[in-house]
Amino acid sequence: MPHTQHAPAKINLGLHVLRERPDGYHDVETVLHRIDWADTITATLADTLSMTCSDPSLPTDTDNLCLQAAYRLAAAFDVSAGATLHLDKDVPYGAGLGSGSSDAAATLRLLTELWGLDPSPERLHEIGASIGSDVPFFLQDAPAAYATGRGDSLSPLSTTEGAYRVPFPMLVVVPQVQVSTPWAYAQVSPNATNRPHLPRLVTSNDLAQWRSALTNDFETPVVAAEPAVATARAALQETDAAYVSLSGSGGAVYGLFKTIEAARAARADIRAPARRVHLVAPAE
Question: 47 and 74 share a domain?
């Protein structure tokens, strides 16, 4: 009987590159927020580990984070069983939406169930962090989290009303370009001074404040270097979007709207063969 997991994408609400680390990574701070755009992964028991994918351009060997996750989980718990994985890929990759990390996290959850394992959340977090900095976020249940360190130190974001969710409808626009994360970091001058407090700024839901203070350090260099990203961003800014930002290191950009009608009208206006557009309904 196949087991199935969905692997949702994320956006970044603000992203500050604070400093270089001795290990070659960077300390960052950002708010990660799940959205309802997802891949689907299925797994069935098998004698060995193998993988297929709906997207023929993606590798299905250990270059794929799903298989990396499977092998690391098996090694950590001395699992002799295998599994056949299938990734139904819908979220664009290399776009700053975390889809590869989410796929890896979903694989860890899936195989934990399939193989009858019972790892502690801390152990699963440790395995996930060894695969990628965003993987731990997708292993936790909170819809949004304040991420620090390499992006893997997480504090679930909440308000007096409960877990935080963006209350605005959203359009995510993905041009046909992949941005190299190492390249993007090389374009940014780290800065840890005079940065706004992201959890407080985000949970204010004050779009005027977001426009003036909620920034992504990758946006300026990526927009300057990638005309397709600049065009997608400009297309959103020409709609009724109340806030527009790059997600992660790009090239996905997203816009927030005050009404679902405005978001739908914008979606109709900015659809183009050279980019994908996904509408995210507001949180109830």
Answer: yes
